[in-house]
């Protein structure tokens, strides 16, 4: 009797410890998507690198992670999920150590490639482990716990990166992963169960190479476009052609081969397909907003890096409370209704952000960020739970890998679009506003204006140009936030494409059986 009572307790304890290990892996990888951004200027000086060279510290990681995310499902099935998870966590930790010890830009770019390649599997594998570890009625809570790492990591990355860089050195941006990585590897080795390897599987090399070429060159194009002038540059045109060819050959091959590299059966599931659509929306809204808000606060409002980081932290606070709340009520509310409310909050806060000016108080920015974080949290948990509710268990690892890839690709596209639009609109608005700065504008000839802004002097003209540039940038930021607002609004009706999700396993009904 005592043994029978102890068994469930041991199972719950083991599952809790496994959850901690998967969470540390998720947080470690999610942090590294943004933590190095604020350290780049310090790294550039320390490593004697040019601006173009130091940007490869980010590009190399993004490209390697994007390329290596897609095969995670196959490698997990072929060799076993536990082996792969431990290899990825160990490789990521070792690569972090090497990044922290790098002596020149060539070394750190090579080690960031290695870090991205090993880190690609951490998020999809951790999600697959969490989905398998919890019964269907508890998956809402499980995805809330897992989602905290995925969502809070990128949000808190700039704050932590800024603190470590300012108070210690840029090396600690990478070295901080060492204790976390070692504990993760040890915990996975002890608490995780191995899946049965499928030794009969054969790797689709043509499909992988075609997809890798398509994704890699697309990421390269998105990352380099702003620096070299987009399609005015032969480099970007060449990368676009190569990427399109890679995706074409991948699709043509996958639809005609008996064992494709990506199992397209996952897209036959309605909930999973809807999940992919909303993951695109989340990827664009979350990461594009982060890419805009950080320079907006530092450059437009003049916030110091730590102040900007603390204000940005409100987004993480809102996300945390949303995931706690959603995890508790998920069993009683259909995911589509949570998605509806979450997207509505995102749209409302983005509309508010479109009206930000230099007179906007810090408290308004803080509250807006917190509410937006709450809305994103309300979307993320039901989205990830519903996407896998009716997906067959043997496709789960493939599903988590593709969903992660979709989010990463969407975020890259979104960031590139909003930054390019910001640059274009700033130039266009500056030109339009300049049309009103003429000797024929009576307002500029008033004594009080001339006393502070005399266009007949070099100082006055420079001051006027700086004012025009700043106002043009405010308009450009507002335009970007408005575009994101409309994206959120347009996506809201599609929440009803998400099917009803059964909460508890039942002997009747294929959905419950499949979800289990």
Structural notes for this entry:
The model is unreliable at 1-6 and 503-516 (pLDDT under 50). Among the domains are: 1-203, MFS general substrate transporter like domains (Growth Hormone, Chain: A); 204-260. The chain has 516 residues and is an all-alpha fold. Helix 7 packs across helix 17 (396-434), helix 11 packs antiparallel against helix 12 and helix 13 runs antiparallel to helix 19. It is 76% helix and 0% strand.
Point out poorly predicted stretches: 1-6, 503-516
Helix content: over 70%
What is the count of β-strands?
Answer: 0
Assembly level = single chain
Given helix and strand content, the structural type is: mainly alpha
- Per CATH, which architecture of one domain? Up-down Bundle
Radius of gyration: 24 Å
- Mean pLDDT value: 79
Order of helices and strands: HHHHHHHHHHHHHHHHHHHH
Any idea of the CATH class of one domain? Answer: Mainly Alpha
**CATH homologous superfamily descriptor of one domain:** MFS general substrate transporter like domains
From the N-terminal CA to the C-terminal CA, the straight-line distance is 28 Å
Per DSSP, the total helix count is 20
